Amino acid sequence: MPTPDPVRGTVNENVPGGQPVGDKVWNVLLVGVGGQGVVLASDILAAAALEAGWDVKKSEIHGMSQRGGSVFSHVRFGPIVHSPTIPRGEVDVLASLERIEALRWSGWAHPGAAVCYVDHEIHPQGVRAYNPGVDDEIARLFGTTIRFEDHALKSRISAKVKNTALLGAISLLVPIPQQAFLAALAGHVPARTEEANATAFAIGREIGSSALAEATEMAEMAGRPAPEQEPTHVE
Amino acid sequence: MATKLLMSGNEAIALGAYEAGVALGCGYPGTPSTEIIETLVRRPDVYTEWSVNEKVALEVGLGAALAGGRALVTMKHVGLNVAADPLFTSAYTGVNAGLVVVTADDPSMHSSQNEQDNRNYALAAKLPMFEPSDAREARELTRAAFELSEAYDTPVLLRSTTRLSHATGVVEVDEDAPAPQRHPLGFERQPAKYVMIPSNAKRRRVDVEDRWARLREAVETHPANRVEPGSSDIGVITSGVPYEYVREVLPDAGVLKLGIVHPLPRRLVEDFARQYRTVYVVEELDPVIETQVRAWGIACHGKDVFPSIGEFSPGTLRAALGLPQPETIAEPAVEVPPRFPALCVGCPHGHVYNALRERGMVVSGDIGCYSLGVMPPYSAMDTLLDMGASVTMAHGMDAVLQGQPDRPPVAAVIGDSTFAHSGLTGLLNACWNQRDGLFIVLDNGTTAMTGGQPNPLSGERLGREDTMHLDYGYLARAFGIPEENFAAVDANNRKAVTAAIDDLAGRSGVRLLAVIGMCIIEAKDLKKIDKFVGKRDARKLELIEVDAHAHA
Prior knowledge:
The structure holds two protein chains of two kinds.
Chain A: E1 26-33, H1 38-51, E2 55-60, E3 70-78, E4 91-96, H2 99-104, E5 109-118, H3 134-141, E6 144-148, H4 150-154, H5 162-170, H6 178-188, H7 194-222
Parallel strand pairs in A: 1-4, 4-5, 5-6
Antiparallel strand pairs in A: 1-3, 2-3
Chain B: E1 2-8, H1 9-19, E2 24-27, H2 35-40, E3 47-50, H3 54-66, E4 71-76, H4 77-82, H5 84-93, E5 99-105, H6 119-125, E6 129-130, H7 135-151, E7 156-161, H8 162-165, E8 167-174, H9 191-194, H10 198-218, E9 226-228, E10 234-239, H11 242-249, E11 254-258, E12 260-262, H12 266-274, E13 278-282, H13 288-295, H14 314-321, H15 350-358, E14 362-364, H16 389-401, E15 410-415, H17 416-432, E16 437-443, E17 460-461, E18 465-466, H18 472-478, E19 486-490, H19 494-505, E20 510-516, H20 520-528, H21 532-550
Parallel strand pairs in B: 2-3, 2-4, 4-5, 5-7, 6-7, 10-11, 10-13, 14-15, 15-16, 16-20, 19-20
Antiparallel strand pairs in B: 1-8, 6-12, 9-11, 17-18
Helix pairs in contact in B: 1-7, 3-5, 15-19, 16-17
C-alpha cells in the first residue's frame, strides 16, 4: 500500500527500486476527445505546478487532436523530472473529460491511483451506446473515484469550463496549493472568463470533496483504509 | 532578472535561434517541427516565411547565410529527403553566417509515413549534428549550433524528436538580457567556394575532409558532451530524449551524454567505456552510435537488447534490461470501443471520396488531412507514399495500364498545399508526356493537418498577410490542358461535384478538377479575425468563371 507523507504526499511503492519520498514525481494523465480542452487543462496544471515550485514536464501528440481521436496529455511534476512521458503503471491521477476515455487509459495507472472524470459521452463513429457497466468498472478498478455527473455539472457551469472544474477535483489529489491553480488559470484564460473559470474550479473542488468525504465514510464503515486526500504542500 | 518559463522544445529552439541573432527563419509545415517557425514569426526583427517546400526552404536559408544573415531552416524528418539535394552540396560551399537545419524526427510514426532516423543524414552529408534532450538544452544547443557553424564554416544539423518538440519543460529566461548580436550582413564574392562546378567542388572536397579532422578533435571537449559518473558497474552511452529515460530508470549508472551525435568523440567514448564492466548504447531507431562504437573495438550492448522499431519509454528500457515493471491496474472487464481519427463533420472533402468510390476508381492519394479518406466510411484511397506522389504514381499506373481491356480508371487526389509543394511538377510531367488521368485538387483553403498554415493557394502568407494566390484556370491553360478538361467547383455543391467528376471521367487526356471548399476549423479562425466573408467570396469568384464554360 502507498505510504502517505504529509509533506510530499504518497510514494508509489509499487515501483521497484522506487524513488524515496523526497524524490517523488507526481504523474497526472489528462485525457478526452479532440476539442474538449484537454491540452488547455494540461497547460494550466503544468503552470500551477511550476507556480508551486516544482520542476515540470508535459507531453502530448498533436495533429490528430481535432480529428475526433483520443487526446491525452502527460503532466509530471516533482523536484526533478526526467522522462517527459509517464511510465506505464505510474499514473497517480487519471483525469478524463469523457466517460469511456477514463476506462481506456486505466491500464497506465498504478493500483490505488485516483480517477476523476466527467461522465459526458462522445461516441466514436459507429458506436451507438457504451456498455452500461462503465462507471461501476471505473469505480472497481481505481483506488479513489471522483465522478462528475455531466447533466448536473452543466446545470451549474458552461460546457466550456468543464475542464476547469476537473482541475478543481485534481487540486484535491495533488500537492499543489489552490492559489497556484488560480494564478495559472488567470494566466491562461481570457480576462472576461476569469470569474467563470474561478467559479468552475471551486465547484469542481466542492463536488470532488463531497465524493471523497462519501468514500471515506463508506470505507470507515466497511473497515477499509480511507482514500488519500490532499497532502499538505509545504513550500 | 531570471524567470522560469514553461516552453516546448520547439519554442525553445526558436528562442535559441532568436538569441543567436538569427536573421531569417523558414521551413515547410511538418509535425513535429511546425511550431518553431510559428514561434519565430512573432519576432519582428527576424524575416520568417513558410516556403513552398523543404528544398526551397533550405536553399533560401543557405542564400541568406551566404549573404551574412544567420538562418534557421526547419522541417520534419521526411522533409529532409526533399531538401537532401542542397543539403549534401552545402557541406562543400560552407556558409558565411551560420546555417542551422532542424530535422524533427518521428520515432513511432505518430504522424508520419515512416520513422527514418535522420542521424544517418549527418554521416552521409558530412555535417555535424546536435541532439538536445529537453527544452532547456534545445535552446542552448541551438545557440551552440550557430557558433559551431561559423567556427567551422559548415551548415549544422539539429535533431529533435516528437518527445522533445512536443514536450514542455522549464527554461530560465533573463528578461533583462541585451538584444541579440547580429552577424555583419554582406555578400563576399567567392565563386571558388560557392559555385560548385566540378573543378571547384574537387578542391572544396579536400576542405571538407580538413574540416572534419578539426571537428573530430573539437567534439572531444565541447560542453554539449558530458560524462555523469555512476556508482554502478553499468555505463550508458546515449543522446537526445532517451537520456531522460536512462536517468529515470538507471539513476546509479554512469552516463556519457552526447549532445553532438556526429562526429562522435572517440577518446571520450573510449575513456568512458574503460571504466564500466558493461556498456549499453541507448538510442532509438538505427544503431548509429553503436555501429561506430563497435567499429572502435569497444564491446557494448545495443540493438541486441533494445528495440530497433519505435520510440522508447522508461518501460522499454526496463523490459530490455530485465528490470521489474511497475504494477498496473487490471485491464477493464468492460469493452472499450476504439476511437479512430476521421475527417471532421462538415469537412468539404468527404463527398469527393464517396463519388470516386462509387465509380470504382483506383485512388492515388497524398499527404494531409485528406489522407483520412483511406478510413471508413470512405475507404477511398489506394496509395500514399510521399508529398506529390498522388499525381505521379497515377501517371505511372496509367502508363502501363493504358490500352488494357477492363482497366480501372485512376484518379489522383491531392491537397492544395501538397499541390504547391510538389504536385505542380508531377502535373506538368503528365501534361508534357501526354498522359491520361483525372487529377483532383482538394482545396480547403489551408494546410490543415499541421494546424492550419497558409500556402500559395490560400491567398495569405505566414502572419495572415494577404498575398497573391495560384489561379487554377490560368494554370490549366499554361499547362496546355484544354478548356473542356478543366473544372473548378464548389465543394459544398454536391451536385456540381458529382457532375464535374462524371463529365471529366468521360473524357480523355489530362483532366484537372479543383474542388474548392473551406476547412471548418479555418473558417472558425477566419471569423475570429473578420476575414471569413472576404475569403469565401473571393474563392467563389474562382468558380463563376468556370461554371460558365462547364455548362457551355
